[in-house]
Amino acid sequence: MTGDFKVLIAGGSLVGLTLAISLERAGIDYELFEKEDFAPQLGASIGFYPQSNQLMDQLGIWSDIEKVVVPLRERYHFDETGYCMETSIALQYLQHYLKYPTMFMERSEMLRILHNHIADPRKLHSQSSVVAYEETPDGIIVTTVDGQTFQGSILIGADGVHSRVRQLMADRIPFTSEYKCLFAVSRNDPATPFLPNGTVHNVYHQDHSALAATGVPGLVFWFLFIRTPITRTPHCPRYTDADADALAHEHGHVAPGPGYTIRDLWTARVKGSLVSLEEGIVSQWSYGRVLLLGDAAHKVTPNAGFGGNLALEGVAHLTNALVALLRDSSSGAAPTIVQLAALFAEFDRNHRPRATTVLGLSATITRYEAQQTGILRFAARYLSPVVPDRWKAALFVRFASGAPRLEFLPVKTVAAVEVDVEGSVREGGGTGKAWLAVGLVGAVVAVGLARFRK
């Protein structure tokens, strides 16, 4: 189907490896270049919602993920005094509706699983970052750090928020940062656990918040979010291990849940880092034969856990478009630059609205949890707790229904609910009440956000 068409991928983390596997399943040739080793012990955790796990199931990966995770089932929301404002089992309803769980796992373990599913490891080049590229009439040539050159048809910049490919495109980076995050993985002793398996704890303070979750037996994945003065790339701060340690001690008294503190979690850590949280969407995702994907194109705050899921949606959109283009190419001829430009434009039309929505949702939840205004505090304490969990799950089902599937692979599990065009969720009957109730909370949150943005 693909003839001489080859995709060159810069970046071998979640997006790059998932794209490589998707291309293999579609029969499309590729080469992938990663500046470090594959599956490095960097980063703490990654969270997937049901729509992403369905995508992994299409690729034949979900069974390996399922073996090492504990589905998240219960969530507790605390204020700064330790009072439990809300207890939620919405995640259980969500799993019932969509047939896949919401989960956390170690990022390094996820990368290891993805790496193991690569059919032809010879296509993977570690310690081989892309440092330059040159477009030709027939394709594109990339040069790696060791001086090797590789020729392909298109180049995908999946090399993260500090993307080298994006720098080579000379696009201005419009990211801002108003929060920093201390994220870590800590040991969770089964004899005296910080919190039970399958549980999420959130605590809301003025201008900071924390989250802890047990998605893997014996481990806690946790985050401390701190509001900071606004900075803009490339001037967003870079933090050291000493900075992380100092912040953990400064906010060591914060209790994500009953009976333990940030200080306790930090003492029990396996690994942890302090980073600036960039937010924004690059204005131009493609130029010539080059396309940006994942964090290289859009970056959102992690409170809601949408970033990795959004990146996987981009992988699905791109692979679907490539499969359709190559299938329709006459006589197996390579796509022209005009056809590629049309494909990239279609990708932008399909994916940018979703990225814009996710950016806004993520920003809202980050400010909501940090209680930046009195209206947001009111919503967390008095509005959200009275909205039934079924309705919250129903609203998320509507959101998840906008995620693409891989159109060239079968869907292995069909959701238990249908979503109609008006956004009502049906399971043998209808309820538009979810939109009414959750919409009320959303309206109050929106007002609160508008006030702090003035």
Automatic annotation (TrEMBL):
Q: Which SUPFAM superfamilies match?
A: FAD/NAD(P)-binding domain
What sections of the protein cross the membrane? 434-452
Q: Which family does it belong to?
A: Belongs to the paxM FAD-dependent monooxygenase family.
The family database entries (InterPro entries) matched by this protein are listed as:
FAD-bd (IPR002938), FAD/NAD-bd_sf (IPR036188), FAD_mOase_fung (IPR050562)
Specify one Pfam family: FAD_binding_3
**Does the keyword section mention Cell wall biogenesis/degradation?**
no
| UniProt-recorded name of the protein | FAD/NAD(P)-binding domain-containing protein
Domain FAD-binding as annotated: residue spans: 5-329
Picking any one GO molecular function of the record gives: FAD binding
Instruction: Tell me which PANTHER family the record gives.
Output: FAD-BINDING DOMAIN-CONTAINING PROTEIN-RELATED (PTHR47356:SF2), FAD-DEPENDENT MONOOXYGENASE ASQG-RELATED (PTHR47356)
Query: What is this organism's lineage?
Result: Eukaryota, Fungi, Dikarya, Ascomycota, Pezizomycotina
> Which Gene3D superfamilies does the annotation name?
FAD/NAD(P)-binding domain
Listed A to Z, the keywords are: FAD, Flavoprotein, Membrane, Oxidoreductase, Transmembrane, Transmembrane helix
Q: Does the keyword Transferase apply?
A: no
